[in-house]
Amino acid sequence: MKKTVNKTPASQGFRMPAEWETHQATWLVWPHHQPDWPGKLEAIAWFYGELIRKLAVGEAVRVLCNTAADLRAARDVVTAVGADAKRVELIACPTERGWIRDSGPLFLRKGGARPEVAISRFRFNGWALIRDFRKDNALPEFIAHRLKLPLYPALHNGKPVALEGGAIDVNGRGSLLTTEQCLLDQKTQVRNPGLGKPDLEAIFRDNLGATNVIWLKDGIAGRDDTHGHVDDICRFVGPGTVVLCQEKFRGDANYRRMAENRERLEGARLENGSRVEVVPLPMPEPVYFRGVRLPATYANFYIGNAAVLVPTFNDPKDSVALGILGELFRDRPVVGIHAVDVVLGSGAIHCLTQQQPAR
After folding, report:
1. Domains of the chain: residue spans and CATH
2. Any residues with CB less than 8 A from the CB of 94 and at least 6 apart, and which?
3. Active-site residue flag, 351
């Protein structure tokens, strides 16, 4: 049975580890929500097969399946792609969508002689955009119960705090990246009415062990259901280093956005007072579907134990982005996975994954 804890995780020595720290497992939700990928669910299933095959080389892969039919489909794809079935666990669990980065638990770790793992339980409210999110909002409890992990509710003045995993990125040392567009908006998609920077910074400190928040301004241009998630534009790739998307074409809507974020990072400091090393990451040519620009970006990569998985777009800059990330991640291969179909759902590889740290 899971244990709900009233004390804050940070007061008990827990922190959110960096994504490159060793995982016990990666969690996924098998794709089943047709409106996310109209007419493309079969292709998306094979995309998942490739993710699972690459991830299972280095860690367990735990896949939540909405129906018995999804369980059968997932099993068939895992077998067909030649993934290590011994490392793939298919789990029956009701869900609404596949974006477990946002709806799933944020895992914490405490080191020492007897390392521990726990869950910081933030509320998922459908990005303050959709109404059918209750099954997805129940995932932290479901996973905590299954893994028998303590669950720490994230509260502010006694009320649950809404936060998606894609809205933040951490270096595991105390620094956290996020955007004002996503978390401070009080008009368009309001996660937490009335909460400002001091409130959120205290929440991050108490619930994630993040003592230093770096605020960027806006997220990516185009159809972005998340309204500014940081994992589409800027990511930690080391304790003191980030990659930041860079748009060189002045006429592109992302040019000014990324330039302003670069200025902010140049003035930012890490938890130890040092400057942030910023490595530019190119952006692919815009990807459109029926006249709507989709959130195509190389920043939505996922750092697995055995590989860094990067979305690619049949673009000449694919190889450039993979080369940059390959220089930054010398301890594991950097692998591109074709993601043009996937971004139709307004997300990519990072959005579909959630890491569970090793003890």
Report:
1. 3-357 (3.75.10.10)
2. 66, 135, 138
3. yes
